[in-house]
Prior knowledge:
It is a single chain. The protein is mainly α. The chain has a single domain (10-166), classed as Four Helix Bundle (Hemerythrin (Met), subunit A) (Up-down Bundle). 58% of the residues lie in helices and 6% in strands. The chain contains six helices and two strands. The protein has helices spanning 8-31, 49-68, 85-104, 108-112, 129-153, 163-168; strands at 114-118, 124-128. Strands 1-2 form a two-stranded antiparallel ribbon. Helix 2 packs antiparallel against helix 5 (129-153). It is globular, with a radius of gyration of 17 Å. It starts with 7 loop residues before the first helix and ends with a helix.
Amino acid sequence: MTTKSKTIVDTVRMLARYRMWADQLTFDAVQALPPGEATRERPTLFKTMIGTLNHNLVIDLIWQAHLEGRDHGFKARNVVLHAELSDLWAAQQVVNQWYIDWSDRQSKDTLDEIVNFTFIGGEKAAMSRADILQHVVNHATYHRGWVAEMFFQVPARNPATDLPVFLKGDRA
């Protein structure tokens, strides 16, 4: 089996689409849980599935602002922007589509550009645009894992959102 060698542009575009796909599976699975499970408090940092998914949205919005060179306005990373799953999913789809559209406009040169930003804690830092996108996708994967762990507490089966499943094309 041979695979096509991907450029950084190809990889960034693929990762943005992977993110939308994985989030769709996760939100669909959370929606299908028995009533109250998404908001049931659990022994985790963001307290609930909704809290954890809100954290992902907040981080996405922060990095979107960094990529756009503007202030994001957040003072904390644990803000619940949307208490209802349907509202949260609608907002997440908007930002995920923004990242897809953004990735489609990038070139190798723009992805190599360094973005200077300030962490919420006040520390100055800099990353390339490509590294920022990779972080956004990786961060969401990490916290979808937290949600997956909470599925075991229901108990319920969480969806397989692994990158190889996406790349294989089993996207039923």
